[in-house]
Amino acid sequence: MSPLKLPRTLRLDPSDTFVFARAAEPGEWAVTGSFLFLDAEPDALSPKERAAFRSGFLGVASFGFSTLVVVSEATEAERAEAVAVLARHILDELGAPDPEAARAAAEEEIAVAASLCGPPVGTVIALTRSLEAGALKERFRTLQRREAVPGADRLHAQARAFTFVETDDEPEESVDLVGLMGTDPR
Predict the structure, then answer these.
(1) For 43, which DSSP code?
(2) What is the arithmetic mean of pLDDT over 42-71?
(3) In this structure, how many other beta carbons lie within 10 angstroms of the beta carbon of residue 32?
């Protein structure tokens, strides 16, 4: 029998705390959270709600959002606790008709989250959610750590999404942000 795997929220930088109204804490069990957007009109959402709609996984404990999750091993006890916590949120915050209905919904959401965890432990998953022809669509991408390549140059040996490299051969640039806004701050 293969080990139980569930997604955990992952925070690589503080951006989730700025992007979402409520950011999930790093390391929480997570579900897609798409059920929160079943009746949503993306254009009517606030910018932070729209960000959660487009790319947010829902942290089970905080009921906050995370841009990324990581496939992680879980015990049956951790899975059961995640179901119980999510059921409480569904009952208390979303108004499920009774605890049994909330638990059934939470079980389903956790099962969907587990179904995303086919890749190896440590695989990072990103979500893109959209409304297409009136239907909610989810797309998932997996990101895996690249192994260092022996003999690779220092810059690319442990490549990251963004690396800042100082150079002396770039032209100096300046931007007048106030001028671009067309307003005088005085």
Answers:
(1) G
(2) 94
(3) 21
